[in-house]
Amino acid sequence: LGDFGKPQGYVARQIKRWSEQYRASETEQVPEMDRLIAWLPGACPSDSGAAIVHGDFRLDNCIVDPASPRILAVLDWELSTIGDPLADFTYHLMQWYMPVSETGAGVGSLLGHENTPGLPRIEDYIADYCRRTGRTGIPDLDIYMAYNFFRLAAILQGILGRVRDGTAANAKAADMARQVRPLAETAWRF
């Protein structure tokens, strides 16, 4: 895995890449995205280490055992590389804050399900992750969250750009892309 990815500067490179991708596919002005593109490079957290990162690690990309609380498989590895493990973990945490899609398209949300039996409170989930990884906490958690919501908004904006250009393959692409503004707003709140 020595040449699988560059371990240093992962989040900074991602911010640069997705800012450029967003601009290339921009279809309307979203003020929060403009502010994030200006602010995130200077706020970028220091690397927390290097590990294999999935790049799209969320419940939607997991097969969960229907009979027990365990993950059977993690799917959709095309964004994987070597990078900051906290970027990947905090991407996973987005589920607790994900704006609910009016159409049901896009990324799943745990909003409204916080009291579901078996679903940990986010604070407990973070504490368990830190315990298991030998961390005392996650410095810059809000910055990681802002970065991840920004990144997902930029990815969905790219899908909207493909809708505009007539090259979108997914029939629900336009519905998914309607999440750009709510994701950007959530990022900016962090």
Quick summary:
The protein has helices spanning 10-25, 31-43, 85-93, 122-133, 141-165, 173-177, 180-189, and strands spanning 51-53, 62-64, 71-74, 81-83. It is mainly alpha-helical and 190 residues long.
Given as residue ranges, the uncertain stretches (5+ residues, pLDDT < 50) are none
Structural class: mainly alpha
* Whole-angstrom Rg: 17 Å
| Anisotropy-based shape | globular
Strand content: 5-15%
Percent range of helical residues: 40-55%
What is the element layout, followed by pairings?
Layout: H1 10-25, H2 31-43, E1 51-53, E2 62-64, E3 71-74, E4 81-83, H3 85-93, H4 122-133, H5 141-165, H6 173-177, H7 180-189
Antiparallel strand pairs: 1-4, 2-3
